[in-house]
Amino acid sequence: MRRDACDCGKLPLMSSLFSTDDRADRTQLAEAVRQACIAAALEAHEHAGIAGLCQEGRWEAAIEAVRSLDLRAVLAHSG
User: Fold this and answer.
1) Which domain holds residue 60?
2) In angstroms, rounded to a whole number, what is the distance separating the alpha carbons of residues 59 and 48?
3) Which residue, 9, 31, 41, 43, is most buried by CB atoms nearer than 10 A?
4) pLDDT tens, per residue, the chain with 79 residues
5) Is residue 1 part of a domain?
């Protein structure tokens, strides 16, 4: 299969729609979002453990931290 098409072969992949510079910018942005999500999850997991939550509670706290992450702040910081 061509790397510039989706699995169905009818739609182009998003990466083929952008110039090299745009892709680099988008990759940098995606990495900033990933790092922010990881940091939020790790911090929430640690704080939940300190608060005495069980492993399941710690995991739920970590997921909620990612869900409630302020993406506007991440975008402002990464730009």
Assistant:
1) 28-78
2) 9
3) 41
4) 344 444 555 555 555 656 778 888 999 999 999 999 999 999 999 999 999 999 999 999 999 999 999 999 998 988 6
5) no
